[in-house]
């Protein structure tokens, strides 16, 4: 006769619940899987399917009741790990969107804003266009499959444990967030530089011919030059965006190892050397 105890049921629930929490947190935070246009039922179904595949290969789980305080702390820790891994990839898309914002403001398209369902705010037309281009590049290089592979690999590099993770990983994640500003400015530099030269030329032209209406001809010229530069630089954006994806995936792979490492214990202060000839 087969008997099932409450401990066995708790073990089965924990074996599925804790990996599912990390997977669903990454799906919710990642830019492609967590898109608002994807139905919630599809996200949950994908997470459950991945959890059923990953659960048999997960290392030994801590002996804790999922409904106890220790089990809830493990659940929250797994959720934070998944959110951090998804946020690492979202930083890349935020940098691309910032490049679009800078370009649109320089072109004079600051008024051409649309409602962004992902951020629940307003974003410019150029920003949404570059975000769509980055999404297509993300799919073209199979970065979404590599991200799922890194997620599965994280269960081996950072097993589910009741001990808290090392906080140095969160500092590295915050440092990676600074790439939003540096990368956004670098991606928008060709457009900003071309428009700067255009504005200087318009200033010289207005100085040479004061009868010209700068406000009448300035906006169409800057807008046309901006769109022309975007069309010319768009094929060359593939390499830097692909390098950003590779860097982001590599950080996702290394992040669990950083959290699993513990800082070395502080060394005790060595006593000063005693001069020769002195007693104890």
From TrEMBL:
Transmembrane annotation, as ranges: 12-34, 46-64, 70-93, 129-152, 179-202, 214-238
One Pfam family in the UniProt entry: Bac_export_1
Biased composition (Low complexity): 270-280
Keyword annotations from UniProtKB, A to Z: Bacterial flagellum, Cell membrane, Cell projection, Cilium, Flagellum, Membrane, Transmembrane, Transmembrane helix
Record's bilayer topology term: Multi-pass membrane protein
Function: Role in flagellar biosynthesis.
Protein name: Flagellar biosynthetic protein FliR
